[in-house]
Amino acid sequence: MKDCFFMSPVKGITDLTYRNCFADHFSGVDIALTPFVDTVKGNIIKPSKLQEYDPAINRLKIIPQVIGKNPEHLKKLISQLKSLGNTEVNINFGCPHPLRTKKKTGSGLLPYPEEIDELLNAIFKDVNIDISIKIRLGMKNQNELLKLIPILNRYKLKSVVIHPRTALQGYGGETNLDMFKVCYSKLNHLVVYNGDIVSVDSFFKFKNLFPEINSWMIGRGLLSNPFLIEKIKSEVHFDESKIQGRITSFHNQLLNDYSKLLSGDSHILQRMICHWNYLQTFIPDSTRFFKKLGRIKSLKEYKSYTNSILS
Fold it and tell me: Helices marked H in the chain — which ranges?
């Protein structure tokens, strides 16, 4: 079976504009998980906010992700996403940010298996759509997912995406690959590996460690190197000579698309700087580049400077 590659959701980065621009310039991503959409206490989400999750206007195949702890609110949101034409929704049990965990959403739910059971039971009872989940090993304790597995195995989940860290670790510290392997062996579902795939070599390291896995999710590694999955999948020599030109074209389209979407130079500049935090790997002297970028106040000046750098 061929390997399947997912684009991991990154809030504020992998939005509709980014995903469509990525699809125009790079290949290899089979499915993109969208950044999560939050529940709103019993209210219907505005159609304008849900537009991003319409598969008809996404040039990458998407799976919308949702976050929340109230079953009724989640069911209403999932039904809205289904009405757009989505056939699968992913529930976030992995977000490590304190603003989420304090509200007992994302990873904050992991210490409460009975509440996860109630939530899944309510959703599977009333919502006719494929459900997958994205999860971590635990909130603070790396054994929490292991304790959850008997509950998860009772439900017909489409897949379980596992990031083998705790929420307390955030995105740093060592991944617990031994615990990932234990959890993988006990789950009755398709498992997607997520975490620290940042290069072709690192991918094949994980592939050799987990030969049974054929589904992979890549986040920061793909944002920093949009060619990564292409290189992994490439059966012929990858043309390194075209990298800079393709990055320039990608950047220019991204800037153009955000300029149409956002109002005000400062708003557009802030968004582009967020992307440069990842794309800086293509800049020879990133420290100097960011110092200059921080002093730029107008879009005209930004375009002039980035054109000179990218050329």
Answer: 16-25, 47-50, 71-83, 98-101, 113-126, 144-152, 177-186, 200-209, 220-224, 228-233, 243-261, 265-279, 286-295, 299-310
Residue ending a domain, choose from 233, 258, 283: 233
Number of compact structural domains in the chain: 2
Residue 34 burial (10 A CB sphere; 0-12, 13-18, 19+) = buried
DSSP assignment of 123-191? HHHH--SEEEEEEEEESS-TTHHHHHHHHHTTS--S-EEEEEEETTTTT-S---HHHHHHHHHH-SS-E
CATH of the domain at 129: 3.20.20.70
User: Letter for the amino acid at 280?
Assistant: Q
Q: Express each pLDDT in 36-60 by its tens digit.
A: 998 866 566 777 788 899 999 999 9
Question: What are 91's two structure tokens?
Answer: 């529930």
Average pLDDT in the chain? 94
Q: Could you count the other beta carbons within 10 Å of the beta carbon of residue 273?
A: 14
| Structural domain containing residue 218 | 4-233
> Whole-angstrom Cα distance, residue 24 to residue 219?
18
Specify the pairing of strand 65-67 against strand 130-138.
unpaired
The predicted-structure confidence for 222-280, as pLDDT tens digits, reads as follows: 999 999 999 999 866 778 888 999 999 999 999 999 999 999 999 999 999 999 999 99
